Amino acid sequence: MPDIATPAGTVRVLAREAAFAELLDRLETRAARGGFTAGLSGGSTPKAFYAWAAAGRRLSPTLLARADWHVSDERCVPLGSDESNFGHAARGLLDPLGVPPARRFPWPTELPPVEAAVRYASSRHPGSGFDVCVLGLGDDAHVASLWPGCPLIGVADGPLFAATEWPGRGWRLTITRAGLARCGEIVVLVNGASKASALRAVCHGPADFAGFPGQVLRELSSRVTWLADPEAAAGL
Question: Is the Cβ–Cβ distance between 44 and 229 less than 8 Å?
């Protein structure tokens, strides 16, 4: 199926493992140019990517030597928690492939949320987002921890990383709209029929950033690629 051009970026329709191979190719291409930062995502699809990549030992020595690993957003829980996004990346990908601690940059979740966001931002390259930012898309069209109605959505020139309290879900640490604008490349993994309406709203719905946070990517469309399976892309 040909790529689909949308106001929110290019949608590439691929079966799940083909999407994983495409994501890996983008990481490898960036690593070939030198050291870089990769911001991974939480959720079931990234966990499946970790298992696929680790089982086949698919990351090249060059990629392993040059990538600094982060996550785009995090719950305020210990790394050992089953709810920790970085914890899943560590257990599913980084540990099996022997990525050293010096290449790992988890959020300091042992600190209070606002302090953790400030500390994390100051520990990174000043003024930069991720060279490759991997996101998912929620059924409610959220990306990272920019949830519907999140007060961070309307802030274009604020901090690149921030803490936000998601009603009913507790505190989250997240890349912001301003942080996404500083990323070199954004890749969004979208799988399953349950995501079809959200993807359609983000790509083609009336502008409503607060209601459909993924629409913030429309401002960055030239740098955004959606890797969607046929079920998720059915409404485009």
Answer: no
Are 53 and 20 a contacting pair, CB within 8 Å? Answer: yes
**Calpha distance 100→104 (Å, rounded):** 7
Q: Are 104 and 84 a contacting pair, CB within 8 Å?
A: no
Give the per-residue pLDDT at 154: 80
**β-strands 4-6, 9-13 pairing:** antiparallel
* Listed residue (111, 136, 110, 147) closest to 49, CA to CA: 136
One-letter amino acid for residue 16 of the chain: R
In angstroms, how far is the first alpha carbon of the chain from the final one?
12
In the chain the domains, ranked by start, together with CATH numbers, are 4-228 (3.40.50.1360)
Measured distance CA(145)–CA(172) in Å, rounded: 7
The count of residues in the chain is: 236
Q: What is the pLDDT of residues 57-88, one digit of tens each?
A: 999 999 999 999 999 999 999 999 999 999 99
Q: Does pTM surpass 0.90?
A: yes
Cα-based torsion angle of the residue sequence 93, 195, 6, 183 in order, rounded to the nearest 10 degrees: -30
